[in-house]
Amino acid sequence: MPQYIYHVVTPSHFSKFKDQCDYTIESLDIEGFIHCCDENQIPLIIQRYFAGEKELHILKIDTKKLKPTVKVEQAKNGEWFPHIYGKINKDAITEIKNV
């Protein structure tokens, strides 16, 4: 398991959790986990799922500080991605980059 994984999110969605201890997104309710990626996959994720977005946050998450379980799993297209099975405790977010 890598120590750092990444989650791409719009600033408008992330700001909804500014006064909360945890962060989540609808995929947790729908699929049971929060999608993440490794550092090398960030450009692919932005191109694939966030094309046209003018501003994004990239959350750098320390898996050693993360409370929920993380599993690296194979997607339907054969790629491997880390998935977080629970809400992200915000103290595990070590950096927020704006792109």
Word description of this protein:
This protein is an alpha+beta fold and 99 residues long. It has a single domain (4-98), classed as Alpha-Beta Barrel (ADP-ribosylation fold), CATH 3.20.170.20. The protein has three helices and eight strands. It has a three-stranded antiparallel sheet with strand order 1-4-8. The chain has a three-stranded antiparallel sheet with strand order 3-6-5. A hairpin with a 5-residue loop joins strand 5 and strand 6. The protein starts with a strand and ends with a strand.
Descriptors for this entry?
alpha+beta; three-stranded antiparallel β-sheet; 99 residues
Helical run tally: 3
CATH architecture: Alpha-Beta Barrel
Fold-level CATH name: ADP-ribosylation fold
Largest sheet, spatial ordering of strands? 1-4-8
Outline the secondary-structure elements.
Blueprint (H helix, E strand, L loop, with lengths): L3 E6 L1 H5 L6 E2 L2 H6 L2 E2 L6 H8 L7 E6 L6 E6 L5 E6 L2 E2 L3 E6 L1
Antiparallel strand pairs: 1-4, 2-7, 3-6, 4-8, 5-6
Quick synopsis:
With 99 residues, this protein is of the alpha+beta class. The protein has 3 helices and 8 strands, in the order E-H-E-H-E-H-E-E-E-E-E.
